Fold these 3 entries.
Entry 1:
Amino acid sequence: MGTRDRIVAAAEQVINELGLARATTREIARAAGCSEALLYKHFSRKEDLFHAVLLERMPALTPAVARLSGQVGVATVAENLEEFARAAIAFYRRSLPLSAGLLAEASLLTGFRAMLAETGGGPHLPILLLGAYLREEQKIGRVDADADPDSAAALLLGACHHRSVLGSLVDLGPDDALAPGLVATLIAGLAPR
């Protein structure tokens, strides 16, 4: 593992242990086994380091969406959505500490928004891609023609995010237990009539 990767991994560890507000460059450098000067050789600002953690160390939903798009017409829509819901809950659960910190820190949020604008990325993309998957299933008759794929995608991902927030506050049992019921309820509104 190179120095830059070691610093990013240490930043993730420190953020998880201390929270974003208390994750200082001094603490991160100590955890990475390097000097603050070396840290700043790789990252010009603390915000850049936090953005690297978010983009490089957090599990992305894009691979789960890519798998899902390859499942059009394969297995059942419910099975495909359950697998995706489990991945989404895991993603939101793991990324919640960092994303909450971003929302609470104005300079980090401003920098993150600028980075998203430059790269064309953003947290809305999984919803759009999930909606596209449902539209493809709709075209082959596995989703009702009158269903709204984009609303269904927003409902599913919103519920997954909500579960991760609640699960951070209280013990709701295993996250995997939610996916089947959540998807079954959603499918009831999507199933061809």
Note: The chain has a mean pLDDT of 88.
Entry 2:
Amino acid sequence: MKQDTQIPNSMTIAIVDDDDSVRTALESLLRSTGYKVKTYCSALAFLNTNGPAQTHCLVSDIQMPGMSGLELHKQLVAMGFHIPTLFITAYPEAVPSLGTDMSAPIACLPKPCETKKLLSFIETALFQQN
């Protein structure tokens, strides 16, 4: 029996990170894999667009100025968006608990991310929605 899956390029992955080099590297990797990618330099930049409504998977830094990735995740849930989320962080030992009132992220990966792990988690995030 054939599994019902969407074509990757029909799915949008949003990258939210205040580090331009991280955004650029992730965007290049994901585009080369066939995904549609949108990048944002901050959580507020993402929230102030129609990004949340168009995003199938979110890759977000945790520690960013203004609003952290965890605060972004909480805000999205409060707005009714349940986007599968992967967190990335340069400080994996300092990741705070999300609390029981939030949907759990798919993963929390250290920067730099191991490519195979990142792509595997993105695939898991995208296809758990189907």
Note: Residues 120 and 126 are 10 Å apart (CA to CA).
Entry 3:
Amino acid sequence: MPFKYPFSTKGYTPQFCHAVHFILEKEGGLRADGGYVNDPKDPGGETKYGISKRAFLGVDIATLDIDRAVRIYYTNYWKAAYCHEFAGNVALYQMDSAVQHGAITAIKLLQEIAGTKADGKMGPNTRTAVHGSDAEWLVSRYGLRRARYYARILKNNYSQTRYIEGWHNRLADLTDAAWELAA
């Protein structure tokens, strides 16, 4: 029996469905309340399904449903970070990075790893470098690069230290999920 996602998969690729399911799981979006939180210490503010009020001012977070959240992920992260152009495990890492740090930053991180100019623009040099690299190598390097990125966040804003364990646990789970896709 095929896996049943808790959201409509119509119009989405299996790679996207897998990636967004991972994101929803990590963001608490698979809970009955959609992972709704309104932590005053979280710079994202009110959040549900991992969608924050800070990032989406026009969205009524309290009434957001899972299918609308999935559409937001598809448009603002999957497509915006060009995840659809890459192998499943690289796409998963790219998607999670876009959700955590923004699509432009995710592109820059991937460019740094692939050895191209980190300008945040997905051009032919970046595409060639990523497609010409071993996907498992890219994923391994991506995890290390993201860990360094988290360190910079803490250096610039020490109050975010309370999230470091969760960030690193997420990276470990992300790496496991990416390796499963590579197998």
Note: The mean pLDDT is 94.
